[in-house]
Amino acid sequence: MYILHNQYGYFLTKSGTWSDGRELPPLFKTIHKDEAINQLFETNSRDYKLRLSLLECETNSKKMPLIPVEKLPPVLQKPIDASNLLKSETPVVTDQNSSLKPH
User: With contact defined as beta carbons under 8 Å apart, do 10 and 17 qualify?
Assistant: First the structure.
């Protein structure tokens, strides 16, 4: 299974927003690498400042990606619109002492 994540560690959803990956159904996911690469290019063409990567994951019994714990970013209070992510230095996180840092 392939999913996309940005330089801050957040995962692309089907609706084009960013998620912390703790809710799996809304995530953009595919078993086809070429489809994931196409989505990466489409998303990146809308905002050239994004640095997207493919993350290959195993799946659970419900065919949902098993995201490694070390790949999960800080918890978001709400999904982030991709266009707003790069306008601020730190997206809203539940831990006010946390700040997002590029990988």
Answer: no
